[in-house]
Design goal:
Layout lengths: L4 E8 L8 E8 L2 E6 L9 E4 L4 E4 L1 E3 L22 E6 L13 H15 L3 H6 L8 H11 L5 E4 L1 E2 H9 L10 H16 L4 E5 L17 H12 L5 E5 L8 H12 L5 E5 L5 H6 L3 H10 L4 E4 L8 E3 L4 H4 L4 H8 L3 H9 L1 H12 L13 E5 L11 H6 L6 H12 L4 E4 L5 H8 L4 E2 L19 H10 L5 H8 L1 H7 L15 E4 L9 E8 L5 E7 L6 E4 L2 E5 L2 E2 L12
Helix pairs in contact: 1-4, 4-5, 5-6, 13-15
């Protein structure tokens, strides 16, 4: 059903960065039909009184991982309650297409995606149609099998490209010329089918101490794939560099610098470090951003404006694996509770765990226990709210690994810790005003039991505009809408203008907040049943429209699914 809607008496912020203006917006047949003062109702239009509210384009999430989750969580809550109308996926070089009939390489692709994005393996393996080989067939399967409330766009990821071309050897070696040619053909097909670009990763090592497949790629492989990308004007290259974990970003960005010289496509590199511990280790990285701008090159840095406060739970191996603590990573990977308790009490396991603790990267957060907080005790014994450093101080002389094991034995395996960190608010304000910096990275859709990124963008409106008054509202909205649409080439959305798609939101800035995380039991679990993920109550928006259809209205998700997949209709 198409809706004709007249939004009256609002303060219009059009997404371009222009100052707000009072006026009305008419929506007809999914498009913005008219913008102006004192518009009169026509026919059976629904009238929305937006007095005291902003009327803006729908918000664009630039970095999500719903590639798999959308198959079993079609409502994608709380996206609509936070005004999100477009989600960009296929990030970090991960993805689920292309694939071959080789079940081992497909399983390895799933294991990689599952580990790094902390997505349950069983629903990933069993909950998707898997009726595709090429990226275009994957797009067609999504359109055929799914209805969603948000527009979805996707990169084509380097990991599935390598695994489809090389099988399991993608994790072990450089590609041959023939294998590179296969990857190039697959990328070319994906870009022609609507992928927004090519995504790769120079960051990630897994819980067994192995690099992701893209880290095995030589420069000639990257150069060939980037040659393909240049065949498609308007497509983008995303590259994740080592701004945490091993902190090899200076080497990575120098490589990206050489690989992209003379290239016309836009590059998003992630990115300028904004957390205190990152800046201390990579103080010279922002100089690359300044040089790229001075040279007029289309390289854009990506950044988080909200520090990703990551929870550490003891069924998710990622926080340990990315610290090179492989024994604790294997412990987290174990699913059986009795086995886990036995491990914690076994002196032989404890000795191995102490040894593994000493093999962690020097920069691992565990070596700075004051930055890790005790968040939740399953048993209620506690203590909760103190730092891991304070916990260690209660048993002086005890090895940190043993102290953690003892704490778990008392507090329970569902107990939680969390990382804490400080952001540079002044730097982030500067980046928001920088046309060569891209924000609104939430990482949502991944790490369901570690963080809930959906809603982080609301802090840009509350913290930076309403409370600290560091930005004007038009600057914040531009960073969530028009600036992002221009980068990705979303010409039909991101600004409020006649003829554009009616993806828009209405909200009262005094009503909205990024709500606290809460556990929602809606994720398929190994062996049946449901487990939990973090979510949030709605901000809320007064109204969220996607292609003119309400997806959030009257303080609730509407059950409507007008979202498009890869620019589809």
């Amino acid at each position: 059903m198409k809706f004709d809607i007249l939004i009256k008496n609002g303060t219009i912020v059009d997404g371009t960065g222009a100052p707000p203006l009072k006026g009305d917006v008419r929506v007809v047949d999914g498009l913005i039909a008219e913008i102006g003062p004192k518009l009169e109702r026509k026919g059976r239009e629904r009238v929305i009184d937006a007095a005291g509210c902003y009327v803006t384009p729908g918000f664009i999430e630039t970095h999500n991982h719903y590639d798999a989750v959308m198959w079993w969580n079609a409502n994608l809550e709380p996206m609509s309650g936070y005004g999100v109308t477009t989600s960009v996926n296929g990030n970090c070089g991960f993805g689920i297409a292309p694939i071959t009939d080789d079940l081992e390489s497909r399983a390895e692709m799933n294991r990689i995606f599952s580990f790094f994005e902390d997505i349950p393996e069983q629903p990933l393996a069993e909950g998707l149609a898997w009726d595709w080989h090429s990226w275009g067939e994957y797009r067609d399967s999504m359109r055929r099998n799914l209805r969603i409330p948000v527009n979805f766009e996707f990169y084509c990821g380097h990991q599935p490209l390598r695994l489809a071309a090389m099988g399991l050897e993608a994790r072990e070696r450089a590609a041959t010329d023939a294998e590179i040619a296969v990857m190039c053909d697959a990328l070319r097909e994906a870009l022609a089918a609507g992928a927004i670009g090519f995504s790769s990763n120079l960051l990630d090592w897994d819980g067994d101490g192995r690099p992701v497949p893209s880290l095995m790629a030589e420069d000639k492989e990257f150069a060939a794939l980037l040659d393909v990308l240049e065949e498609f004007p308007g497509k983008t290259f995303q590259i994740i560099i080592s701004v945490f974990q091993r902190f090899e970003a200076m080497k990575d960005i120098a490589r990206v610098d050489e690989l992209t010289k003379g290239r016309a496509f836009k590059v998003m590199w992630a990115g300028i470090p904004t957390m205190d511990y990152q800046r201390q280790r990579l103080p010279d990285l922002p100089a690359y951003h300044d040089r790229f701008k001075a040279e007029g090159r289309p390289l854009y840095t990506a950044f988080h404006h909200v520090p990703p406060t990551t929870a550490v739970n003891f069924y998710s191996p990622l926080p340990f694996g990315q610290s090179n603590n492989l024994v604790w990573s294997a412990f987290a990977k174990e699913r059986d509770e009795a086995t886990k308790f036995a491990m914690l009490q076994d002196e032989e396991w404890r000795a191995k765990a102490r040894e593994s603790w000493g093999q962690m990267y020097p920069q691992a957060r565990w070596h700075r226990p004051e930055t890790i907080l005790v968040q939740e005790s399953e048993s209620g014994y506690g203590p909760v709210g103190i730092s891991f450093a304070e916990l260690l101080a209660e048993t002086p002389g005890k090895h940190p690994s043993d102290a953690l094991a003892d704490w778990l034995l008392v507090n329970g395996l569902q107990s939680m810790l969390k990382y804490a960190g400080n952001k540079d608010q002044a730097l982030m304000t500067e980046l928001m005003r920088d046309p060569f910096a891209i924000g609104n990275i939430s990482d949502s859709g991944a790490h369901g039991q570690m963080l809930c990124g959906i809603g982080d963008h609301i802090n840009l409106l509350t913290e930076y505009v309403r409370d600290a008054k560091l930005l004007q509202v038009e600057e914040a909205i531009h960073n969530l809408t028009g600036k992002l649409a221009a980068f990705f080439g979303f010409d039909d959305r991101g600004v409020l203008a006649v003829g554009k798609r009616a993806d828009l939101v209405v909200f009262d800035i005094d009503e909205i907040e990024c709500r606290p995380t809460m556990k929602v039991y809606d994720t398929p679990e190994i062996g049946g049943g449901r487990t939990w993920r973090y979510s949030r109550a709605a901000a809320p928006m007064r109204l969220t429209l996607v292609a003119g259809e309400p997806t959030f209205d009257n303080d609730a998700f509407t059950g409507r699914y007008p979202g498009t997949i890869v620019g589809g209709v």
